[in-house]
Write a structure and sequence with these properties.
The structure is a homodimer.
Chain A (H helix, E strand, L loop, with lengths): L5 H8 L3 H8 L7 H14 L5 H8 L4 E7 L7 H13 L3 E7 L6 H11 L3 E5 L5 H9 L4 E6 L9 E6 L1 H14 L5 E4 L5 H17 L7 E2 L8 H11 L5 E4 L2 H13 L9 E6 L2 H5 L5 E4 L2 H17 L9 E4 L2 E3 L9
Parallel strand pairs in A: 1-2, 1-3, 3-4, 4-5, 5-11, 6-7, 6-8, 8-9, 9-10
Antiparallel strand pairs in A: 10-12
Chain A binds a DNA duplex (16 and 16 nucleotides) through helix 2 and helix 4.
DNA sequence: TTGTAGGCGTTATCAA
DNA sequence: TTGATAACGCCTACAA
């Protein structure tokens, strides 16, 4: 089946290809009747412009690349939804690049991004090092980092849409202090390195302000296949801390199950809060407290920001950093207002 | 910053662009020393071939499109992982197209797929109608439908990698019969229409073989925002059925919570099984039985199949249908061997 | 309002 | 082994 081109349409409508191109691109210098004639030809032949050729001619692909870690896919589904919906509005195509330990390092992803000449990039945090960022920066390709605060160096063509996890945890801990609780633990999450670091900073800052030192970072090695197994063992040798902070739902659930099975009462003996919320936390019994973070919006905002960066001819440097607010969701595993 | 092209490299290395093209494409008719010279020039200038131009010249983009429903994103994460990993191996770029009710109907997605001239398509089932399939077929673009059995008409350039949900449920029900149980209910899932239909068929077939009729399809309207709310209300007027089948984890969990809270015992009063497994089912107490379905493999196999279809010059028609096996996972919500 | 022709960055076919 | 040169399909001055 021969792919039909702009030439075929031109011949069919008995005009030049320039005219066809004009009607495709809504140039309004085309006379009504010839426009109609061309439209008919297009319909009749079922012609669809070749985006590749357009891309070449315009040096502009109208596609943006989204890169994120494979492991985090299911957690970032809502952000992705926000990104995709807005991308749809602006008619962007989406190239999807995942990074995973063995198979595709960030290096390969960058290579592929450059080669495909995407117009912009959405980068999930926790996916790259500063070096890699530098490489991307060299190519002057607009990007926005989404998820958490990006703290590396950056020039003007990188934006950031983020939740301030440091502040979130800082406030949570301060609040606990106010309630007379300072036996606080933070469980490690190996999938979200930079978030983890920020949260740790938040706690440490809160502790430091009280002249105390934060020591209960629950870090475990890979011998433990699950945080459940780890925390089960942990409880054999230790009593649980009063307030336990986890980043993701499954870790919070793991802690809860282990503690419950070890005979502890929640929230009387220990409180648990997951930073990230998920519908499953609400399905647990007791229901696990968390934070409401508008994931979908975060994605939508990120894509919108990128779009602005793409159209603005790099003159007006508006806000390229947008903080997303969070709100506590009190459920059954915490005792009072967070 | 001027994008550097093959011309720049040619000038730098003092050869013609044809030669540069040859070393890029590993054509082995290039003399060793000129090859080196070109390589150096490439390194020095940081040249990266423009995939768009290549695509135009070759009428081949080396990119495949993955289309799936936004809502199902988090559920399909593992399949996606399988797809992406294998795509990485073959150096395919991935265009990601999501469908969602209001914003992007399948129609738009098809439009975009055609325009971007992708080499192939991976289609998640439950995303399209037969008509839409026809449109895609017209363009002769190789695709594989992944997830469940595709039952529409199809020509030779569409493959199918699937789980036979009809058989799965058929066997499950037969097994229940063998255990003397025939009070069986199936809960509707509005996100997975075609899967639902297949499962219903499976049950009905099993019932028919016993000369019975299946009546307990738990279908609820949109007035209920959650299946939990629905089942809570359901239990106010009805006793639970003996064996309850749900498709996804959250529905199974919802049933369990509602039943437990209504004072029923599991699995003594009612059994629950979720067809799709998830880590959360194992975190529930009691742990909910399900089926192990090798999602990652299914994705990997699908992408591999598509790759085969892409390289085979449509002469050797190997197997284009591959059934993925499932295995029951007995946990605490069912009483005996399924 | 329409058509002509050059250019976008590669690959591939011929010659040399 | 290398170099011209014509595609690939479209866009856009510039002319007509």
């Amino acid at each position: 089946m021969k792919r039909i081109t702009i030439y075929d349409v031109a011949k069919e409508a008995d005009v030049s290809l320039a005219t066809v191109s004009r009607v495709i691109n809504d140039s309004n210098v085309v006379r009504e009747d010839t426009r109609n004639r061309v439209q008919e030809a297009i319909e009749k032949l079922g012609y669809k412009p070749n985006a590749i050729a357009q891309g070449l001619a315009l040096s502009k692909t109208t596609t943006i690349s989204i890169v994120m870690s494979e492991k985090l896919l299911s957690y970032n589904a809502k952000i992705l939804n926000g990104l995709m919906d807005v991308a749809k509005i602006y008619n962007y195509n989406i190239m999807f690049n995942t990074t995973s330990k063995g198979i595709s390092k960030m290096q390969d992803v960058i290579e592929s991004i450059i080669k495909s000449r995407v117009d912009g990039v959405i980068l999930f945090n926790d996916n790259f090092t500063e070096d890699e960022m530098d490489v991307l920066n060299e190519y002057q390709i607009p990007m926005v980092v989404v998820g958490s605060k990006f703290e590396g160096k950056r020039d003007e063509n990188v934006g950031n849409v983020y939740v301030d996890f440091e502040k979130l945890v800082y406030e949570l801990v301060k609040d606990a202090f106010a309630r007379g609780i300072d036996d606080i633990a933070l469980m490690e999450d190996k999938l979200n390195i930079s978030m983890m670091k920020q949260m740790k900073n938040g706690i440490e800052k809160a502790f430091a302000e009280e002249g105390k030192e934060f020591k209960n970072y629950l870090s475990y090695d890979d011998a433990y296949k699950t945080s459940y197994g780890y925390y089960q063992d942990y409880l054999k040798e230790n009593k649980p801390h009063r307030l336990n902070i986890a980043f993701r739902d499954s870790q919070a659930i793991a802690m809860m199950n282990a503690a419950l099975e070890a005979g502890y009462k929640i929230p009387e003996d220990l409180e648990i809060v997951s930073v990230l919320d998920s519908k499953y936390l609400n399905m647990m019994r007791p229901r696990i407290s968390a934070y409401n973070i508008p994931d979908y919006d975060m994605g939508a905002i990120a894509m919108r920001l990128l779009q602005k960066m793409l159209i603005s001819d790099s003159d007006n440097k508006e806000r390229r950093d947008m903080e997303i607010r969070y709100t506590p969701i009190e459920r059954d595993t915490t005792e009072s207002a967070q």
